[in-house]
Design goal:
Number of domains: 2
Strand order of the largest sheet: 1-2-3-4-5-6-7-8
CATH superfamily of the largest domain: Glycosidases
Shape: globular
Strand content: 5-15%
Number of helices: 12
Distance between the termini: 33 Å
Radius of gyration: 21 Å
CATH class of the largest domain: Alpha Beta
Order of helices and strands: EHEHEHEHEHEEEHHHHHHH
CATH topology of the largest domain: TIM Barrel
Helix content: 25-40%
Number of strands: 8
CATH architecture of the largest domain: Alpha-Beta Barrel
């Protein structure tokens, strides 16, 4: 068994050195909500938590559900993937099913929204899971339809910071959140404490094809993936979802073009490191070709409209770069230079 925490914007001034000495995994809130709002619905502390904990402890993620209409579970998953921006995770992405507004949904509708989210996450190359409390799992969710996902259940008993075996959910679950009033070195105030069972890895790799819904994904992302496959011969899934695999191949394509056009001598490994950064050039309005196409593709995957993914650096691409630069704290000059490349592809 492993012990871990889940943290969000409500956990600030974290002493990460102490925390990593006292926990084995951390599940980080990515964001919340149906609308994709770059600066408002992404968890304000996600990037800091991820940067300081990835590689030190096992890291997973969760997204808080507000979806209550058909199709919105898929949309929230797509927002989550945009916020994650291709980051690697050790543990699943969990759908946080607990908001009071969900109580009014019937079991089938709520379960279908959860499946929409989880299948979209899986199709992007991540493992998927569901977080809820014991009441929701026993009364609001059709758990027989959620067997392919990792189950993380909150069940506290007296909620005094200790494990109370009699309070545990008796159904299938791989992580038990046993208190919201725990104390752990590195976090200020009360903390959510969790216990992860040894069977997590086995349980998250199971998939029953007969119960798997099919989603078509985003058509423009499918076109991007098809272009990468036909232009460079990459063996990637054409599914319309932007995840770690698609991002890796976009970086590989950029490295290939820098080698081909500028003799950069890069290892085409899909990792945007210092050598790739130093090899990047300034690309601006009037440019045409594959590097511009790659820039447009990555901008689109991050939610910025270039008014076409056609390899032509026109007014639409310039405007999208300026907007991206503004939202990421870069100088908004509309030129894709080294620092903009790094922010886009790191």
């Amino acid at each position: 068994m492993k012990y871990g925490v889940d943290i969000s914007t409500f956990n600030r001034n974290v002493d990460y050195n102490k925390l990593k000495e006292n926990t084995q995994f951390a599940i980080l809130r990515v964001g919340y909500g149906v609308q994709y709002l770059q600066d408002k619905q992404k968890d304000e502390m996600f990037e800091e938590h991820y940067t300081n904990l990835k590689g030190k402890v096992q890291v997973g993620a969760y997204y808080y559900q507000y979806a209550n209409e058909d199709g919105e579970g898929k949309k929230e998953a797509e927002n989550c993937l945009k916020y994650l921006d291709g980051k690697q995770l050790d543990l699943p992405i969990f759908y946080d099913v607990e908001d009071g507004s969900l109580n009014g949904l019937d079991k089938d509708k709520l379960t279908n929204l959860v499946i929409e989210f989880c299948e979209t996450i899986k199709n992007a190359g991540y493992k998927a899971g569901v977080y809820a409390n014991k009441y929701f799992f026993e009364n609001k969710l059709a758990t027989n339809k959620l067997k392919d996902y990792t189950i993380w259940c909150a069940s506290y008993g007296s909620n005094d910071g200790k494990e109370h075996e009699e309070a545990k959910y008796t159904g299938k679950h791989e992580i038990w959140q046993y208190t919201s009033r725990g104390n752990i070195d590195g976090l200020n105030g009360y903390a959510d404490l969790n216990l992860m069972y040894d069977n997590l890895e086995e349980s998250t790799t199971t998939n029953t094809e007969e119960t798997k819904p099919v989603f078509s994904g985003d058509e423009n992302i499918r076109k991007i993936q098809t272009w990468l496959q036909s232009m460079y011969g990459y063996d990637l899934k054409i599914d319309g979802y932007y995840g770690p695999e698609t991002k890796k191949y976009l970086v590989m394509a950029l490295q290939h073009e820098l080698n081909l056009q500028f003799n950069a001598g890069l290892n085409e490994d899909g990792i945007f490191g210092d050598l790739t950064y130093n090899s990047c050039i300034n690309v601006k309005q009037g440019a045409t070709g594959n590097i511009t196409h790659i820039i447009q593709a990555e901008l689109y995957c991050k939610g910025f409209d270039t008014n076409g993914i056609d390899g032509i650096y026109g007014k639409g691409t310039t405007a999208a770069i300026r907007k991206y630069q503004t939202e990421t704290g870069l100088s908004a000059d509309g030129i894709c230079g080294k620092n903009t490349f790094k922010e886009l592809f790191k």
